[in-house]
Amino acid sequence: MLTLYHTPLSINSRRVWVTLLEKGLQFDLVEVDLGGDQFKPAFLALNPFHHIPVLVDEDFKVIESFAILDYLEAMYPSPPLMPCAPQAIARVRMVQMVTLNELLPALTPLTRKMMGFGEPDAEAIAKAKQQADGVLRFLAQILDNHVFFGVDHLSLGDIVLGTVVPWFAQLEIPLENYPNLQAWCDRLVQRPAWQTTQPTAEALAAFRERMRQLMDRRDQS
């Protein structure tokens, strides 16, 4: 039996969760409270680097979300989430790595603002939006007029990017200038896997409050 150790608000966790659902696999979910559970001996035995997600398949443990995605694709290849054509493979990999290395770092000031973790200065916000716009322009060009980044079917690239882009409205990054990306995003969020894994407003509010309390205790110490 597969077991995913995760936190619902984690983008890293969500991409694995979505992949498991899209592949139609049976799995158990174990929620890890990042307020301290990640440092307990039981979890450190799964991942000595104390972060999520962790996938356990029988007696085999996999850490790091991208490694987990590759493992799931190789171990459970149906339905496929990687294309076969060389250019399509390259497109999917580019989307994955650009999301990780370019888009997510650019969004950090906007994410902190959305979560209420302080107010970044106006220059940082403007720079973040400019960087995000450059990434979106690149992604829109890659997507072109295809339905998915995997061309004719959902791919790991769609999942990695697609668990970030639905947050753009809350991050005040409109997609109107990229109608192909907007249509792509609209298709994704209608899929059951996205709806099942979408964090609730209550969960987001509870997380914000917990982080506020942690920051208050840190400031008082």
Automatic annotation (TrEMBL):
<dbReference type="InterPro" id="IPR010987">
    <property type="entry name" value="Glutathione-S-Trfase_C-like"/>
</dbReference>
<feature type="domain" description="GST N-terminal">
    <location>
        <begin position="1"/>
        <end position="80"/>
    </location>
</feature>
<dbReference type="InterPro" id="IPR004046">
    <property type="entry name" value="GST_C"/>
</dbReference>
<dbReference type="InterPro" id="IPR036249">
    <property type="entry name" value="Thioredoxin-like_sf"/>
</dbReference>
<dbReference type="Pfam" id="PF00043">
    <property type="entry name" value="GST_C"/>
</dbReference>
<dbReference type="InterPro" id="IPR004045">
    <property type="entry name" value="Glutathione_S-Trfase_N"/>
</dbReference>
<dbReference type="Pfam" id="PF13417">
    <property type="entry name" value="GST_N_3"/>
</dbReference>
<dbReference type="InterPro" id="IPR036282">
    <property type="entry name" value="Glutathione-S-Trfase_C_sf"/>
</dbReference>
<feature type="domain" description="GST C-terminal">
    <location>
        <begin position="85"/>
        <end position="207"/>
    </location>
</feature>
<dbReference type="InterPro" id="IPR040079">
    <property type="entry name" value="Glutathione_S-Trfase"/>
</dbReference>
<protein>
    <submittedName>
        <fullName>Glutathione S-transferase family protein</fullName>
    </submittedName>
</protein>
